[in-house]
Amino acid sequence: EVVLTQSPGTLSLSPGERATLSCRASQSVSNSYLAWYQQKPGQAPRLLIYGASSRATGIPDRFSGSGSGTDFTLTISRLEPEDFAVYFCQQYGSSPRTFGGGTKVEI
Amino acid sequence: EVQLVQSGAEVKKPGESLKISCKGSGYTFTSYWIAWVRQMPGKGLEWMGIIYPGDSDTRYSPSFQGQVTISADKSIATAYVQWSSLKASDTAMYYCAKTFAAGSYDDPFDYWGQGTLVTVSS
């Protein structure tokens, strides 16, 4: 199975700063079928990015995704207070689908 | 409005059986895959398996194959995951989620249920 490794485990930043989150795959992700989700405490995950770089409906343009092959990045250009959360990447090009371990973005 | 509404929290003893549900509405239930995802306390997300309610085609993660059974009843637009003999290690939040595009297995999950907390303790 494709193992996704996210780094860093925790990112400590201030509102207004830029956040750069990494997701590295153990093998190439087919068709760049890589998604990013945001999860806040007590809530279900929310889809942010799919196809490595396409924003889901209603997602602000401060969120952007990039990458291909085995290396992917989620960038939050200017952190808003509501962006402090845990972020997971997921590949959906190979079975079984797998998630990364998550990056916590904290104030 | 698309909604996935899951059944309520459960407290069970080791060895007991359990079936939790996920009811879809606001979309054509039979046309989208529904997955189950486990989140153990304080941990990450684990893909358990997925079902296509239109024909009950079901796929499992090797980690969950034989441990759970995923099913769906399209007449009532509801998907299920069940355990025949729970273990303490099954304690977790379980989410259902639907795929983004109709008929597509190779898709992310755009709508999620609110989660069902399962606690297994003697």
What keywords describe this structure?
heterodimer, A: 107 residues, mainly beta, 7-stranded mixed sheet, 4-stranded antiparallel sheet, globular, B: 122 residues
Beta-strand residue fraction of chain B: over 45%
Largest sheet of chain B: 7 strands, mixed
What general form of chain A does the structure show?
globular
Q: What is the typical, i.e. mean, pLDDT of chain B?
A: 96
- Broad structural category of chain B: mainly beta
Helix content of chain A: under 10%
Largest sheet data of chain A: 7 strands, mixed
The percentage of residues in β strands of chain A lies in over 45%
Model description:
- The complex is a heterodimer of chains A (107) and B (122).
- Chain A is built from no helices and eleven strands.
- Chain A is an all-beta fold and 107 residues long.
- In chain A, strands 2, 4, 5, 6, 9, 10 and 11 form a seven-stranded mixed β-sheet that branches.
- Chain B is mainly β.
- In chain B, 0% of the residues lie in helices and 50% in strands.
- Chain B is built from no helices and eleven strands.
- In chain B, strands 2, 4, 5, 6, 9, 10 and 11 form a seven-stranded mixed β-sheet that branches. Chain B has a four-stranded antiparallel β-sheet with strand order 1-3-8-7, with no helix packed on it.
- The termini of chain B are far apart.
- Chains A and B meet through strand 5 and strand 10 of A and strand 5 and strand 10 of B.
